[in-house]
Structure to design on (1257 residues):
C-alpha cells in the first residue's frame, strides 16, 4: 500500500496544539498514521511551513457560478493574479483553464490546490437545482466538496413554521438534504427570496413574509431548532437580512442574539453567520456610511454560541452571486451593471451582478476595512473563518494577498495610503495593530472549519486525519511575516507541495496529478412516522405546484460517484 | 411488460417529465401524456431511418465497415486536420457533450452547438445585459401576465402552455388561464396568437424598435414615442406598458422570431433591459423557448468546462470565444476549417446553402441515430443509440433545470458518449505514435 | 528608419493568426530574426518566414519601424494587434482584428478590413481605404468598453454595430453604416457621412453625427433644437433617455 513520510516539516496544526514545531508526518493509504515502514516514499520538507490542506467553508464554486460565467466572457481573459487567472492551454496533466472571478471548473480545482486547499464548500444549493451543482462538483478535479442547501424562503419550511409543526419541519429538512445531497442548512435573507417573487423584500427580522404569515426571525429560529433536532454536523449557516445596506449591523446583531439560548448536542456553535463584512455597515445612507465592525465584534466577543466568516473585499473586479435576489437587482440598478436573476419555484431566488471594488471609492475602501476589522477585533480566531465569499468579495485566488493584510500592519498601512481622506474617518483599521501569526492563520483557514463542520478528518494532521497536506515555501523559524509579506504572499500562492489523500497533486506550485475528489453529504434520520406524515404534504406540493415530478427531483446516485455519506440520528 | 412512470420526453426544450411508457418485449407499446411530437418520437419514429452500421465513403458511396475501421478513419481525419469544426451535440446527453468538448480540446478544434442557428443570440444578449429569469414552476405559480414574443408554442412546444404557462394552475394562479393575461407579439397571427387576450402584430424585423418604445413608456418618457412604432400605435404601446407595470408577475417567453430577426441579439439585449425596467414597478422575468431538448445542456456544460456556452475555439490551445468569428456557420461560410464532426444535430437540413457547399468539400464525420441530409455530406458515419429512449443521461430544460433521462429499452447501438470516448482514445494513440 | 516588407508566399484558406506582426516585435531585428517569429496557422505554429517572404531595410526603434504587407492577406488575422508605435501598411484586404487593442502608431489598409478592426483600441490611428465590416472599433464579448482612444477612418462602408460600447476616441465613416451604429456609446465621437439605421441606441455620452439619412430613429431620444457643425445645421437629439444618457445625436 502507498506510504509517504514527510520529514523535517514545521507543522502548524492548531487542532492538535502543534504550534509550528519541527516533526515528521507519516501517511498511509491516504490517511495520517503513527508511522510508516522504511519503504515509504520520503519528502524532505526542509523546515518549511506545513499545514493541513485548507478548507474553504463558504465559496461559490458550482451551480450559480455558471450563471456568472455565462454572462462574463470577458472574465475568461482577465489575468489579474498571474499564474492563478486567465487562459491556459491544456497540458499533458491539466485541461484548458480560463477566468478569474468565474474560472472554469477545472481551473477551480487546480488553483485551489495550488493555494494548498483541498476541500471546498459550495455556499448555496437550491434543491431543485442540486443535480446541476453535483455535475459541476464532479467536474472540479482534486478537491473534496460539500454544499449547503437553501431553506430560508422554502414554502414547505415556512408553512411548517407557521403551523407549528417542528417535527415535520425537521423531517422535511432531512429530506431536502437527501434530495439535494447537501451537507447543511443555508438560510439566505430569510423570507426575502419569497418576497422577491413579487419584486419585494423583507425589511428586517419581524417583517412578515407576504402570504406566508411568518417572520424572518421565526424562520431562523425554526430552522435552527430543526438543525439541532437532526444533530447535523454544521449549525445553520445564515446570510442575514438587509445585506449590503447602511445601518444593517443592528439587524445582524439582533439575528445573532436570537440564537443565544439554543443548545446543541454537538460540540460546535449553533449559528454561523456568513460574509459578515456585507452585514456590518453603520450609518443611515451611503453618505454617512461607516464601519460597524466594532459593534459587531464586541457582540461576538461577548458570546460563545456562534462563528462567522469574513467575506473580505479585494480591490478590482469581482462577481456578486447570491440567493439574495432583491439585493442583486438593487445592485444592478445602483451600479448600472448587467443583471441575471433566477426565481426558483417554491424555494428561493438568486441573482448575479458584476462589481468592481476600487480603493479610490470611499464605500469600497470602507468595505475592505470592515472585513479586516472583524478578523482583527474578534479576539478568538476559532470564531473566525477566512473567506472572500469568493467571488463576491473577490476571487479566491487573492487569498494569499488577503493573508498579508491580516498578518502585517505595515502592509495595511501601504494599502490605506491610496484611500480617499473621507474613508479613513469611517474605518478603524488605522488604529489596529494586531497581526495574525501563522498559527492563527492556520486556525482561520483550516482548523476552525474542522470544528464548525464537525469534519474530524479535515483541517488537521493528527493520526486518523485525511492526508490532505500543504507545504509552503516559507520557514517559520526565520521569516518575519509582519514585514516579509511579499514572501508570505508568494509562498501561499503556489504550494511547494499539496498532498491530497496521500497523493502529491501540486509540486513547486504546479499541478502534478489530478485525482477525483469526494462529495460529502448528510443523511439525517428521523422517525419513519414523521417522515411519512411530511411526505403527504410534500407530495401535494409536487402534484400541484412543482414543474417537475418528485421522482425526478431527487439527485440520483449517479451524480455522486465518490460520495461520503454522513449519517445522523435525530434527538 | 414494464411500465415506466415519470419518464422524460427528449424532444423539445420543455423536457416534460411526467410521461408513462409501457414496454413489452423491448418495444414501446404505449405512451401516456406526451404531446403528438413526443409520442411520435417514443413510438415508432425512432425506429425509422436508422443508420444500421458504421460506414465510410469509398469511391463516392457510403459502404458498411467495421466499427474499428470507422474509428480509425475518423481519428485520422481529426489528427490530420489543421482545424476541425465539431458541431451539434444538442439532441444528446450532457455526459456526451462533456466528452465532445474534451475531444475538441485534444484535437485543437472548434466546437459549436445548434444555438448557432437558434438561440445563440440569446447568450450574446445575456453577455450584454444579464438574464433575468425564473424556473418554469415560478411562472406557473405566480405569473398573471404571460407574453409570447416571436414564438409559437402551440406548434413547437405543445405542452408548454398547459404545463408551465398560459393554462397552468399554481399556488397564486388557482384559476389558471382565467387568472392570467396572455399576450402574443409576432409578425403573423399564429395559432398561439389565436389563443391570446391581446395580439400585437409588428412589422417584420422591428422588434428592437418596439422594445425601445416600451422601455421609454415604462421609464416615463412617453413624450419621445412617435404616433406609431414597429407598426403599433402609440396608444397600444402605452396600454401594453401599463399592463406590464400593473402586473403582479410577468414572464416574457421569446423565440427565434426575436433572436433570428433583424438586430438579432440586440433584441434579446433590449428585452433584458425592458425586464429590468419593469422591475422598477412590478416583477418580470424572461425565458427563451429553446428547441432541441438539450441545447440548454450544451450551454451549461460548455460554460463550466470551457468558460463559454458555444462557439468555442481550441485552435490555439486555450479556449477562445467570439461568435461572428468562431460560430459554426461563420467558419463554414468563410472556409476556415478543413474537417467537420457533426453529431446529434442535422446541419444538412438546417444550415444555409453556402455552408453546405463547403461541408461537401471537406471530410465530415457523423455520429447520429438517423440517416438525414447530413449523412449525404458525410465520409465516416457512426450509428448511435437514441438518448432518452435507448440511453440514459442528463438534459437541461429551457429554464436551466437539469433532469436525468431514463433508458427505456435496450439497443445494440453504442451511445454518443461511448463513440466519442473511443475517438479520444484513438486520437491519443495516433498522436502518441507520431 | 527600418522598413520590413512581408509578402505572403501563397494565399492561405485556414486563417493565419499573426498577432506577432507589429513594429514592436520587428524593430531592430534582422530578416532572419523576424522570419523566425511564430504565427499560428490552424492548430499549429509556423514561422513568419515559412509563410511570408521577408525583406528588411535598415534597423531602428519601434517608432521608426514601418511594416509593409503585400499579397492577399484577407485570411491573416490580428495584424498590428497591440502595437504601440510605428507604422503598418497593408496593400490588400485584411482579416479580422487588425489593430485591435493598439495603443499607438498607424495602420493603413489599402483594401477592405474584416470585422473587429480597431477593436478596443486605446490610441493611434487606423485608416481603411476600403470597406470595414462588423464591430469597427467595438468591444469584445461581455466587455463594458470598446474603443477608448485613437482614430479610425473608413473611406467606404461599414456593417452593423459600429463603435459598439465605445468609451472614447473617434470614428469617421465616409460611406454608409449598417444597423445600430454607436450602440451603448459611452463617450466616443462618431461621424457617418452616408446613411445608417437606428443609430445611438443606449448612448450614455458622446456625439454621433449622421450626414446622410438616419432611418428608423429610435423612440428613446428627445429632440432638442438644432446645432451647427462646420456650417451645417443638424437636428439635435438628446439621449438615450432609457440609459439616462447625456449623449448628442445630430441628424440632417
Amino acid at each position: 500500500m502507498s506510504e509517504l513520510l514527510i520529514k523535517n516539516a514545521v507543522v502548524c496544526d492548531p487542532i492538535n496544539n502543534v504550534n509550528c514545531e519541527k516533526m515528521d508526518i507519516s501517511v498511509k493509504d491516504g490517511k495520517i498514521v503513527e508511522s510508516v515502514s522504511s519503504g515509504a516514499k520520503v519528502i524532505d520538507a526542509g523546515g518549511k511551513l506545513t499545514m493541513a490542506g485548507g478548507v474553504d467553508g463558504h465559496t461559490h464554486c458550482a451551480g450559480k457560478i455558471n450563471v456568472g460565467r455565462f454572462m462574463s466572457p470577458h472574465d475568461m481573459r482577465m489575468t489579474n493574479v498571474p499564474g492563478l487567472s486567465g487562459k491556459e492551454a491544456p497540458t499533458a496533466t491539466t485541461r484548458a483553464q480560463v477566468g478569474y472571478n468565474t474560472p472554469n471548473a477545472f481551473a477551480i480545482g487546480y488553483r485551489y490546490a495550488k493555494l494548498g486547499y483541498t476541500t471546498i464548500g459550495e455556499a448555496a444549493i437550491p434543491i431543485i437545482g442540486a443535480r446541476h451543482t453535483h455535475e459541476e462538483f464532479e467536474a472540479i478535479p482534486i478537491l473534496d466538496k460539500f454544499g449547503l442547501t437553501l431553506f430560508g424562503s422554502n414554502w414547505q419550511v415556512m408553512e411548517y413554521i407557521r403551523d407549528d409543526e417542528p417535527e415535520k419541519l425537521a423531517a422535511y429538512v432531512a429530506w431536502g438534504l437527501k434530495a439535494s445531497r447537501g451537507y447543511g442548512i443555508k438560510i439566505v435573507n430569510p423570507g426575502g427570496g419569497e418576497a422577491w417573487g413579487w419584486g419585494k423584500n423583507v425589511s428586517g427580522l419581524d417583517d412578515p413574509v407576504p402570504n406566508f404569515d411568518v417572520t424572518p426571525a421565526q424562520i431562523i429560529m425554526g430552522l435552527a431548532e430543526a438543525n439541532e433536532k437532526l444533530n447535523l454536523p454544521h449549525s445553520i449557516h445564515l446570510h442575514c437580512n438587509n445585506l449590503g445596506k447602511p445601518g444593517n449591523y443592528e439587524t445582524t446583531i439582533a439575528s445573532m442574539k436570537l440564537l443565544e439560548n439554543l443548545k446543541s448536542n454537538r460540540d460546535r456553535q449553533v449559528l454561523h453567520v456568513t460574509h459578515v463584512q456585507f452585514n456590518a455597515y453603520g450609518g443611515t445612507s451611503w453618505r454617512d456610511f461607516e464601519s460597524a465592525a466594532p459593534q459587531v465584534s464586541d457582540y461576538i466577543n461577548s458570546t460563545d454560541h456562534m462563528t462567522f466568516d469574513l467575506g473580505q473585499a479585494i480591490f478590482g473586479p469581482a462577481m456578486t452571486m447570491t440567493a439574495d435576489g432583491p439585493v442583486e437587482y438593487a445592485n444592478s440598478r445602483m451600479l448600472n451593471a448587467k443583471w441575471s436573476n433566477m426565481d426558483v419555484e417554491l424555494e428561493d431566488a438568486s441573482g448575479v451582478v458584476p462589481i468592481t471594488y476600487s480603493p479610490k471609492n470611499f464605500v469600497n475602501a470602507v468595505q475592505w476595512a470592515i472585513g479586516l476589522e472583524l478578523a482583527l477585533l474578534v479576539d478568538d480566531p476559532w470564531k473566525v473563518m477566512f473567506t472572500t465569499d469568493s467571488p463576491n468579495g473577490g476571487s479566491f485566488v487573492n487569498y494569499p494577498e488577503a493573508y498579508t493584510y491580516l498578518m502585517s500592519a505595515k502592509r495595511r498601512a501601504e494599502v490605506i495610503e491610496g484611500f480617499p481622506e473621507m474613508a479613513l474617518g469611517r474605518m478603524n483599521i488605522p488604529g489596529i495593530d494586531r497581526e495574525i501569526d501563522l498559527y492563527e492563520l492556520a486556525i482561520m483557514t483550516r482548523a476552525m472549519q474542522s470544528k464548525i463542520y464537525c469534519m474530524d478528518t479535515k483541517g488537521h494532521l493528527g493520526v486518523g486525519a485525511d492526508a490532505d497536506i500543504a507545504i509552503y515555501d516559507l520557514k517559520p523559524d526565520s521569516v518575519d511575516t509582519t514585514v516579509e509579506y511579499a514572501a508570505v504572499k508568494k509562498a501561499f500562492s503556489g504550494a511547494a507541495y499539496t498532498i491530497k489523500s496521500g497523493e502529491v497533486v501540486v509540486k513547486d506550485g504546479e499541478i502534478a496529478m489530478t485525482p477525483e475528489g469526494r462529495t460529502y453529504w448528510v443523511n439525517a434520520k428521523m422517525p419513519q412516522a414523521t417522515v411519512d406524515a411530511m411526505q403527504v404534504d410534500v407530495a401535494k406540493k409536487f402534484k400541484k405546484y412543482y414543474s417537475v415530478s418528485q421522482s425526478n427531483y431527487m439527485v440520483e446516485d449517479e451524480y455522486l460517484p465518490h460520495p461520503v455519506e454522513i449519517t445522523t440520528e435525530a434527538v | 411488460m414494464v411500465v415506466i412512470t415519470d419518464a422524460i420526453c427528449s424532444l423539445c426544450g420543455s423536457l416534460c417529465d411526467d410521461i408513462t411508457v409501457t414496454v413489452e418485449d423491448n418495444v414501446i407499446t404505449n405512451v401516456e401524456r406526451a404531446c403528438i411530437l413526443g409520442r411520435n418520437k417514443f413510438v415508432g419514429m425512432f425506429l425509422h431511418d436508422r443508420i444500421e452500421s458504421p460506414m465510410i465513403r469509398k469511391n463516392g458511396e457510403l459502404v458498411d465497415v467495421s466499427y474499428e475501421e470507422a474509428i480509425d478513419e475518423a481519428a485520422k481525419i481529426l489528427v490530420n486536420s489543421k482545424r476541425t469544426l465539431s458541431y451539434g451535440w444538442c439532441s444528446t446527453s450532457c455526459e456526451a457533450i462533456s466528452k465532445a468538448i474534451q475531444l475538441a480540446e485534444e484535437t485543437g478544434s472548434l466546437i459549436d452547438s445548434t444555438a448557432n442557428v437558434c438561440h445563440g443570440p440569446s447568450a450574446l444578449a445575456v453577455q450584454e445585459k444579464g438574464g433575468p429569469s425564473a424556473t418554469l414552476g415560478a411562472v406557473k405559480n405566480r405569473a398573471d401576465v404571460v407574453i409570447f414574443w416571436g414564438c409559437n408554442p402551440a406548434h413547437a412546444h405543445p405542452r408548454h402552455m398547459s404545463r408551465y404557462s398560459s393554462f397552468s394552475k399554481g399556488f397564486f394562479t388557482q384559476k389558471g388561464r382565467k387568472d392570467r393575461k396572455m399576450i402574443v407579439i409576432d409578425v403573423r397571427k399564429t395559432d398561439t396568437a389565436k389563443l391570446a387576450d391581446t395580439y400585437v402584430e409588428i412589422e417584420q424585423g422591428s422588434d428592437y424598435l418596439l422594445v425601445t418604445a416600451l422601455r421609454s413608456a415604462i421609464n416615463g418618457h412617453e413624450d419621445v414615442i412617435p404616433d406609431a412604432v414597429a407598426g403599433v400605435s402609440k396608444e397600444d404601446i402605452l396600454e401594453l406598458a401599463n399592463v406590464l407595470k400593473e402586473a403582479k408577475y410577468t414572464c416574457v417567453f421569446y423565440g427565434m422570431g426575436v433572436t433570428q430577426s433583424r438586430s438579432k441579439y440586440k433584441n434579446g439585449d433590449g428585452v433584458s433591459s425592458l425586464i429590468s425596467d419593469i422591475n422598477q414597478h412590478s416583477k418580470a422575468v424572461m425565458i427563451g423557448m429553446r428547441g432541441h431538448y438539450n441545447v440548454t445542456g450544451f450551454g451549461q456544460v460548455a460554460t463550466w468546462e470551457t468558460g463559454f456556452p458555444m462557439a468555442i475555439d481550441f485552435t490555439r490551445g486555450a479556449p477562445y470565444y467570439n461568435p461572428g468569428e468562431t460560430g459554426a456557420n461563420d467558419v463554414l461560410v468563410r472556409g476556415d476549417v478543413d474537417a467537420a464532426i457533426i453529431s446529434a444535430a442535422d446541419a444538412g437540413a438546417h444550415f444555409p446553402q453556402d455552408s453546405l457547399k463547403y461541408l461537401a468539400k471537406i471530410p465530415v464525420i457523423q455520429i447520429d441515430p438517423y440517416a438525414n441530409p447530413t449523412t449525404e455530406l458525410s465520409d465516416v458515419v457512426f450509428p448511435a443509440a437514441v438518448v432518452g429512449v435507448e440511453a440514459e443521461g442528463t438534459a437541461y430544460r429551457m429554464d436551466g433545470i437539469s433532469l436525468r433521462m431514463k433508458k427505456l429499452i435496450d439497443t445494440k447501438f453504442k451511445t454518443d458518449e461511448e463513440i466519442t470516448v473511443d475517438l479520444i482514445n484513438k486520437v491519443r494513440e495516433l498522436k502518441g505514435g507520431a | 528608419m527600418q522598413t520590413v516588407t512581408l509578402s505572403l508566399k501563397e494565399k492561405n484558406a485556414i486563417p493565419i493568426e499573426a498577432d506577432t506582426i507589429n513594429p514592436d516585435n520587428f524593430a531592430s531585428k534582422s530578416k532572419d530574426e523576424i522570419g523566425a517569429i511564430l504565427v499560428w496557422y490552424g492548430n499549429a505554429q509556423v514561422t513568419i518566414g515559412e509563410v511570408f517572404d521577408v525583406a528588411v531595410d535598415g534597423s531602428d526603434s519601434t517608432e521608426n519601424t514601418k511594416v509593409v504587407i503585400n499579397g492577399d492577406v484577407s485570411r491573416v488575422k490580428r495584424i498590428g494587434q497591440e502595437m504601440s508605435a510605428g507604422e503598418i501598411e497593408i496593400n490588400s484586404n485584411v482579416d479580422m482584428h487588425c489593430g485591435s487593442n493598439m495603443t499607438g502608431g498607424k495602420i493603413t489598409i489599402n483594401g477592405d478590413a474584416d470585422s473587429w478592426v480597431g477593436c478596443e483600441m486605446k490610441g493611434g490611428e487606423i485608416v481603411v481605404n476600403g470597406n470595414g465590416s462588423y464591430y469597427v472599433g467595438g468591444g469584445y464579448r461581455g466587455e463594458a468598453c470598446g474603443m477608448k482612444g485613437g482614430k479610425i477612418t473608413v473611406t467606404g462602408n461599414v456593417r452593423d454595430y459600429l463603435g459598439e460600447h465605445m468609451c472614447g476616441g473617434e470614428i469617421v465613416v465616409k460611406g454608409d453604416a449598417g444597423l445600430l451604429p454607436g450602440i451603448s456609446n459611452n463617450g466616443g465621437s462618431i461621424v457617418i457621412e452616408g446613411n445608417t439605421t437606428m443609430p445611438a441606441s443606449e448612448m450614455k455620452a458622446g456625439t454621433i453625427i449622421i450626414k446622410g439619412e438616419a432611418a428608423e430613429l429610435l423612440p428613446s431620444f428627445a429632440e432638442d433644437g438644432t446645432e451647427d457643425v462646420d456650417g451645417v445645421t443638424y437636428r439635435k437629439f438628446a439621449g438615450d433617455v432609457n440609459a439616462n444618457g447625456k449623449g448628442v445625436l445630430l441628424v440632417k
Observations:
- Chain A touches chain B through 62 residues (CB under 8 Å).
- Chain A has one domain: 54-459.
